[in-house]
């Protein structure tokens, strides 16, 4: 995609950001309904994921779930304009926070903190909700487009000057930041390949899952606080929910810890399956000898 075309898209998103969220939601749902039929490769990925993870649904139910999902993904992209350009006052109204006392208490007690943030579609709103209250750190992957890269960095750095680490910084950079009192916003639930990963079940399917959560929690002696982000219907905004810190984590068994993470994630996905990031090829890395699923 050319830089000129990316500028046009960003300009369109900027034009939308002043509209009421309820209007943007209608536009996002309408565009998403169209994209469901146009983005055939991604629709196939979504449907493959849903067939693997929800075999109890029939094909009609899975397609209906896929349509809801793609509408929400489209909404999330259009609504980035609000996160990037809206006033802090407006964002405070739109982003509801629940359970933030768990993070405040852990930091007050001097604990390093890992925020376990899986890829629910509303995670960018969740990141903004955290950044408006805390100086945090996270990983950032540079984009091929210089225009998009600049915009994402600007948008994610609006409040409290977060520390954005590259993957080259590895775990040590994150551990160092946590020991300085910056909670680490960690998203370890995508398929990054077999390196530093183990195969553990996710909805009954063996999924290559990185073991960084267990290893980093041990290195930093950090508390793990799970975070679930939700897009609410229409113009109601977003919710960032922090859960109590995990007890008895990490253990000496890295694989068991990673299995626990996936089991927890499954339980949260089941409450709002349309909001998990099914457009990602979660099962692209297969155990030796297994054929590809996509």
Write a compact overview of the structure shown:
The chain is of the alpha/beta class. The chain has 12 helices and 9 strands.
Task: Note down, in words, how this protein is organized.
By secondary structure, the chain is an alpha/beta fold. The chain has a single domain (3-275), classed as Glycerol-3-phosphate (1)-acyltransferase. Helices cover 49% and strands 15% of the residues. It has 12 helices and 9 strands. The chain has a 7-stranded mixed β-sheet with strand order 1-9-8-2-5-3-4, sandwiched between helices. β3 (137-139), α9 and β4 (163-165) form a beta-alpha-beta unit. α3 crosses α4. The protein is globular and about 50 Å long. The protein starts with a helix and ends in a 25-residue tail after the last helix. The mean pLDDT is 95.
Q: Could you name the key traits of this structure?
A:
294 residues, alpha/beta, 9 strands
**CATH topology (fold) name:** Glycerol-3-phosphate (1)-acyltransferase
CATH class (first level) name: Alpha Beta
User: How many domains comprise the coordinates?
Assistant: 1
Number of strands: 9
> Any low-confidence stretches, pLDDT <50, length ≥5?
none
């Amino acid at each position: 995609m050319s830089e000129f075309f990316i500028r046009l898209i960003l300009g369109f998103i900027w034009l939308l950001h002043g509209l009421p969220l309820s209007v943007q939601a209608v536009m996002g749902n309408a565009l998403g309904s169209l994209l469901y039929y146009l983005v055939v490769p991604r629709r196939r990925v979504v449907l493959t994921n849903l067939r693997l993870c929800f075999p109890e649904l029939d094909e009609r139910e899975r397609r209906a779930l896929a349509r809801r999902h793609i509408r929400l993904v489209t909404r999330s992209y259009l609504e980035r304009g609000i996160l990037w350009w809206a006033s802090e006052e407006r964002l405070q109204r739109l982003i509801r926070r629940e359970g933030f006392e768990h993070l405040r208490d852990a930091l007050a007690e001097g604990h390093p903190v890992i925020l376990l943030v899986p890829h629910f579609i509303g995670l960018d709103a969740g990141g903004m909700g955290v950044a408006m209250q805390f100086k945090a750190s996270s990983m950032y992957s540079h984009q091929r487009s210089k225009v998009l890269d600049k915009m994402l960095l600007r948008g994610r750095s609006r409040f409290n000057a977060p520390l954005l680490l590259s993957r080259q910084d590895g775990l040590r950079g994150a551990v160092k930041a946590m020991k300085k009192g910056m909670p680490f916003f960690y998203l370890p639930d995508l398929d990054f390949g077999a390196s530093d990963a183990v195969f553990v079940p996710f909805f009954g399917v063996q999924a290559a899952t990185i073991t960084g959560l267990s290893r980093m929690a041990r290195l930093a002696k950090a508390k793990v606080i799970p975070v679930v982000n939700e897009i609410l219907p229409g113009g109601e905004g977003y919710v960032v929910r922090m859960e109590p810190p995990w007890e008895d984590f990490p253990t000496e068994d890295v694989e068991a810890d990673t299995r626990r993470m996936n089991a927890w994630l499954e339980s949260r996905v089941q409450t709002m399956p349309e909001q998990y990031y099914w457009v990602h090829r979660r099962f692209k890395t297969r155990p030796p000898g297994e054929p590809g699923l996509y």
